[in-house]
Specification:
Distance between the termini: 27 Å
Helix content: 10-25%
CATH topology: Alpha-Beta Plaits
Number of strands: 4
Number of domains: 1
Largest sheet: 4 strands, antiparallel
Structural class: mainly beta
CATH architecture: 2-Layer Sandwich
Radius of gyration: 14 Å
Strand content: 25-35%
Strand order of the largest sheet: 1-2-4-3
């Protein structure tokens, strides 16, 4: 079975940004994985690469003109926290 995630080398429009805060976790912002990608698929795929994932969060839009009673729409982007290690 092939990878459920597109290549992260940018060849398919996927980009990412990282930051390393003092808590020792690496926080990734992964762009353009798709609005239908389940968070658990991302976590499982990264763990098959021996990356220890603390959490995955699907980013939601924050439109200013959107009614506050409605849920914000999902974007194709995800925040991922991984444990810093070897």
């Amino acid at each position: 079975m092939g990878s459920a995630l597109p290549s992260l080398d940018g060849s398919k429009g996927v980009r990412f940004h990282t930051s390393i805060p003092e808590d020792g976790c690496i926080h990734l912002l992964i762009y353009n994985l798709g609005r239908q990608m389940p968070e658990n698929v991302i976590q499982e795929e990264l763990e098959t690469l021996d990356i220890s994932v603390q959490g995955v969060l699907h980013v939601r839009s924050r439109c200013r003109d959107q009614e506050t009673s409605k849920a914000h729409a999902l974007t194709p982007h995800f925040f991922v926290s991984v444990v810093q290690g070897p």
